[in-house]
Amino acid sequence: MRLSHFHLHTSKETPAEAEIISHKLMLKAGMIRKLAAGLYTWSPLGLRVLRKVERAVREEMNAAGAIEVLMPAVQPKELWEETGRWEKFGGQLLKIKDRKEAWYCFGPTHEEVITDFARNELASYKQLPVNFYQIQTKFRDEIRPRFGVMRAREFLMKDAYSFHVTDADLGREYQNMYDTYGRIFTRLGLKFRAVFADTGAIGGSASHEFHVLADSGEDAIAFSDGSDYAANVELAEAVSPGPRAAASEELRKVDTPTQKTCEDVAALMGIALTRTVKSIAIVGSDADGKPQFALALVRGDHAVNEIKLSKLTGLAEYRLATEAEIVEHLGAQPGFLGPVKPVKNVRVIADRSVAAMADFVVGANENGYHLAGVNWGRDLAEPAEVADIRNAVAGDPSPDGQGRLGIARGIEVGHVFQLGRKYAEAMKLTVLDDTGKATTPAMGCYGIGVSRIVAAAIEQNHDDAGIAWPEAMAPWQAVVCVINPKNDPAVAEAALALYQDLVKAGVDAALDDRGLRPGAMFADIELIGVPHRVVVSERGLAAGSFEYRHRRASEAENLDRGAVLARIGGLSQ
Amino acid sequence: MRLSHFHLHTSKETPAEAEIISHKLMLKAGMIRKLAAGLYTWSPLGLRVLRKVERAVREEMNAAGAIEVLMPAVQPKELWEETGRWEKFGGQLLKIKDRKEAWYCFGPTHEEVITDFARNELASYKQLPVNFYQIQTKFRDEIRPRFGVMRAREFLMKDAYSFHVTDADLGREYQNMYDTYGRIFTRLGLKFRAVFADTGAIGGSASHEFHVLADSGEDAIAFSDGSDYAANVELAEAVSPGPRAAASEELRKVDTPTQKTCEDVAALMGIALTRTVKSIAIVGSDADGKPQFALALVRGDHAVNEIKLSKLTGLAEYRLATEAEIVEHLGAQPGFLGPVKPVKNVRVIADRSVAAMADFVVGANENGYHLAGVNWGRDLAEPAEVADIRNAVAGDPSPDGQGRLGIARGIEVGHVFQLGRKYAEAMKLTVLDDTGKATTPAMGCYGIGVSRIVAAAIEQNHDDAGIAWPEAMAPWQAVVCVINPKNDPAVAEAALALYQDLVKAGVDAALDDRGLRPGAMFADIELIGVPHRVVVSERGLAAGSFEYRHRRASEAENLDRGAVLARIGGLSQ
């Protein structure tokens, strides 16, 4: 591609409306152009990147045995009524009335359509297992579309749906897709994690999200440094830090007149926050359904995890206790609460880490006082109820026993899901099994946000000069820049020859023959993130060299022609 | 591709709902599956064909210098109001209200969006000429969607839009796209014609439709056997058949008591229909806007062309005359009318062919009688008004003076159009010209119905056994069929080896290892239209040969391995 024949249109201005770096850089680089809220046109430059992602996804899906189809974007209401989602899906479903007053939607996902396709196409177990996928435009009517293509309303998605006679078959295909997603993101050159996910209300038996790691990611992920374990921080199991030490201090009362938080108490006492225990007063229900006052204990540096807490018996709909309830049960005000000698009818739930503590500090249940040197089994009974009720933090042992957890932020770009038989049952999809009996197939679904990957990759790969694409996603792998071609025809010729050699060698190369001044040209090429830049100049030619620079290198090098080809070809393998 | 791992799902039944052969065959072959009225899912088989068309279109557009973009399907109402098309476009525009009660449409075309894109992207003449295209899903809310993907509501289209400072530049790009379309349809292996088209109300200065020729086509096309000339029959100029012969008969009155049509009169008199003249009584308006009675004369075997007639002075809104008006002006009833001695105030318009006739037959303006041996200048005045007012017919001289016209039926699959400045003006798109002055660019637009091409190709290429794809559109170029692989492992091995050789040679091949009986297998492969079929059987292997058959050949041949490879490779060039 000669850039003089390509519509490259960068901007020096930083767009005011963009809140995150990928949105800013995509607008500055001219990759996208806003049409309306959450609707973007992909420019020639942007589309080159999008197509590279699309191609990698398609090739890996094909290699994994999935079969491509193409379903309509517009879907009839009747199918969505069969699964009850016409109402349940909510405001994100863009509903459309056609000229005959029939209702449709712009599909945000295709479970209904593929299940309808399957009940027409699939009749026998011999046709299973099968995995149909498509790469297709979706629409979700976000209340607040933002962040450019990161959360657009219209977006490009790869969605796959598999059908199986047995759960074991579904499990195998789930693993196949899990592995395939790993190959896709690895091939795209992205740092990512497969994260164990909550299956939520849909209730499948397994689900993983694939996150591209980036500091700006919306989700916090706990991952092991010694294994593949990764989970959303809120879902990651927080295990005990190890065995409890022996008691070494005496129980004593500490004067804490205004110190109501663990931080303040620790500061006053000059001890580590990890020596303190937070007591959170809540109200659940007892076996008879009556309100039950409880204290949830977590270490001072830990945060209670509401999801985990709500999974305990009687706490499905727990609430924080009122001050009156607290005073009634503990005789003190919030800020001075603790599990030692609770007055009456108090359920005490200790986080695993708290159960492993010795010589710790808690509120004294007396206004203005805390207790220090507290020890289980001596100053109060061994905890009756020990549970995982906190968020995992960096440094925790990995729940799988291998390594320790780190915390990273991630952007969800893929999701694999065992749907089970929910949709097949709702839409009466059956096939004959090998005994001739009708059976309801199990289904899996597997999504990748193709257009979102482009933005996520930028969040992960950028610097002050602009985007620094992984090689597989770059609009071009290499750009040959010509300096002042009009001064010396030999420069233009040498640049063209080098460019043609690169193309012949299978490199996706461009020739920047736009005739810009070097500064403007280099700024463009850095902004749009091309991995390899080669500069052809009169001076360089005289010395028999080209100036080569990798996008991530701090300095340029002067290389001869062979070295340039080797460098780019080698890196483009 | 091994068919045992591909979801091929043909049907023996002929679908009752399909009216045309392409729709029938696409359903029988399992290429598409109906989701709702005018909405189709492309199965794995159908999508393979669709993608081949898409790829050919994309590669040729790129080679022609057009640059690919991707615009949203959903478009805001505001843009359509700028051009006035929100109301004018009519019922085909699928209007959508989002959750914030803002109006959008599912784009049936993208003139508004690309012009909006251009007014943000294009600032200077230096960026022009430029031609942006996309291959994208469109929606037109047809009143009566039918014929499968031939007239679906949701469909895949390639639409391109070019921008130019001068009309001359537009003309050059128009010719470039015209030539590119020719290359695309030639590459796809389709018989087609570029047809001069009416620019209709949009009023561009040039427009051609590209038609795939097929007996079932909706449009009749007149084309020259001696040049590239082609036009819709209704638009093709009908030239005079040649100089008028000298009069050789006497004027005489013929008794035609019940013969009111040219056909009946010619039959009664035992003469050719080409000797008779039809007189059509119409009412237009005179120079003062008052109703003016007129006779339009065409040869008995010709049909009046209403479009051409309406372009004559005073006939823009002409209507057929009532019987009372006819009796008032001509003194006779319909069926016996003619131009000889019209009673009063009758405008006579003779088609060019009529003006060239001698010794012809017309109504006598007397009930029950016709006149024969009529000659211009002797029995009535030379025609005062001679014009082209009929449809062209087969055998007419071509209007460009080269060859004679034939008539074929066609299916419109492409359209190139000089839009001029209509959209740019409405949406205030300007660029600075080389003098620094703001100027409004001229635009061209160029569409191809990508999904429609698939159906049109089948209309042109089929037989009793099914589809007979042109090589470039076939789901696979070649299929290797294995007969009874379980009887003899050597057969399965030889088939696999042959299949792999074909793939290595760059042939898009499939291996039919589904284990079907030969009859069912061959019927499938013929139905889905694969050009090259090779059968590997125990008997063949014993004789050192494979059974080869081209889809269009009447018989199979036994060839050795080398000959098979040469045959398929050679044809697949």
Oligomer description:
homodimer
Distance between the first and last residues' Cα of chain A: 20 Å
Total helices of chain A: the number is: 16
Q: Any idea what the shape of chain A is? A: globular
Q: What is the mean pLDDT of chain A?
A: 93
Q: Which CATH architecture of the largest domain in chain A would you pick? A: 2-Layer Sandwich
Structural category of chain A is alpha+beta
Within the CATH hierarchy, at the fold level, what is the topology of the largest domain in chain A?
BirA Bifunctional Protein, domain 2
Count of individual domains of chain A: 3
Q: What summary fits the major beta sheet of chain A?
A: 9 strands, mixed
Overview of the molecule:
By secondary structure, chain A is of the alpha+beta class. The first copy, chain A, folds into 3 domains: 46-237 and 407-458, BirA Bifunctional Protein, domain 2, CATH 3.30.930; 252-387, YbaK/aminoacyl-tRNA synthetase-associated domain (YbaK protein), CATH 3.90.960; 476-571, Rossmann fold. Chain A is 27% helix and 28% strand. In chain A, strands 3, 7, 8, 9, 10, 11, 12, 21 and 24 form a 9-stranded mixed β-sheet that branches. Chain A has a 5-stranded mixed β-sheet with strand order 16-14-15-17-20. A 5-stranded mixed β-sheet of chain A has the order 28-27-29-30-31, sandwiched between helices. In chain A, α13 (489-504) links the parallel β27 and β28. In chain A, α1 (21-28) packs across α12 (450-460), α2 runs antiparallel to α6 (167-187) and α2 (44-63) packs across α12 (450-460). At the A-B interface, β1, β2, α2, β3 and β4 of A face β1, β2, α2, β3 and β4 of B. Chains A, B: Homodimer.
